[in-house]
Amino acid sequence: MSAAFFNKLADFRLARAVSAGTQPAEKVHPIVVDVMREVGIDLAQTKPQKLTQELAQGADALVTMGCGDECPYVPGLRRLDWPLPDPKGLPIEEVRSIRDEVRLRVSHLVEAEGLQL
Fold first, then answer.
1. Which GO terms describe its biological process (predicted)?
2. What is the pLDDT of residues 60-84, one digit of tens each?
3. Residue 59 lies in a domain
């Protein structure tokens, strides 16, 4: 969700987000696909990928969501941790609430970094 919102809100000439996880699923959870479609973002064809040291190395910042010790450490990489619940198995109302919190945090990040369209 966060990478999708970032890529929608940020000027692509200035920055792009890549989504990755420490234990990625085979596909984006169907309820996440549903709640993101509600706001005009289709994640149905998005393939989750593993967060590796190599992937993180090319980044300017790493936004984590409570992965703790499983997150790779990359010297010099700015890291923001947003301890948000995993939407897997939650009722749709809670997933919507998580989606809205993610969108708000991403919006603030994009604005604070001067990356908005």
1. response to arsenic-containing substance
2. 888 988 777 777 777 788 888 898 9
3. yes
